[in-house]
């Protein structure tokens, strides 16, 4: 389905029953990154799996995390969703944190999987690789990761909804960076997933549910 919000058309798929749950994918992906996770949450939640602007089947537009967060805010308003929970992976997690910090959208809970609050949160090897890739390709997707986000400590401290941040032990995001981010959010929970990389546990639905299912059932239902 398509819905026009904030000057762009966002594609989304809807399934399940229960409280609203929005799923936000990472850079260069689309909603299908969560396909194996859907069976584990669709019995308790009405799931809205989005394609961010300039991704998947959504329309092309300028890429920026704050613009993308505003897209989701407007999506919630247009569809009339009441206190949805948001689960975001990588870029989607960044968007989820920005959305929670803005305090314009009333959220029930937020889960950010492998999300960094600033480019320095990306391990040096990967950040340099993205910089080299951008030098040769001028890819807007790579530019987004090396120039943004810029979530301030004050913004993180302003988040007032239940929040869980996770990171893989072998993630391309520094686990210490995610732990620090969690420490700045009042009452936030932090979990480092042993033996996992950036995306490995996210695309394994059963594993992902074992990591965040308890939080969702305690905080989002």
Estimate the strand proportion: 15-25%
Q: Span from first to last CA?
A: 25 Å
Continuous helix count? 8
- Reading the helices and strands in chain order gives EEEHEHEHEHHHEHEH
According to CATH, the homologous superfamily is Alpha/Beta hydrolase fold, catalytic domain
Q: Over the alpha carbons, how many angstroms does the gyration radius reach?
A: 16 Å
Short description:
The protein is of the alpha/beta class.
Label this structure with key terms.
alpha/beta; eight-stranded mixed beta sheet; 221 residues; globular; Rossmann fold
Written description of the protein model:
The chain is built from eight helices and eight strands. With 221 residues, it is of the alpha/beta class. Strands 1-2-4-3-5-6-7-8 form an eight-stranded mixed sheet, with helices on both faces. α2 (65-79) crosses α3 and α4 (124-137) packs antiparallel against α5. It is globular.
Q: Topology, please?
A:
Layout: E1 2-5, E2 8-16, E3 19-24, H1 38-41, E4 45-50, H2 65-79, E5 85-89, H3 91-102, E6 109-113, H4 124-137, H5 140-147, H6 153-157, E7 163-168, H7 175-184, E8 189-193, H8 205-219
Parallel strand pairs: 3-4, 3-5, 5-6, 6-7, 7-8
Antiparallel strand pairs: 1-2, 2-4
Helix pairs in contact: 2-3, 4-5
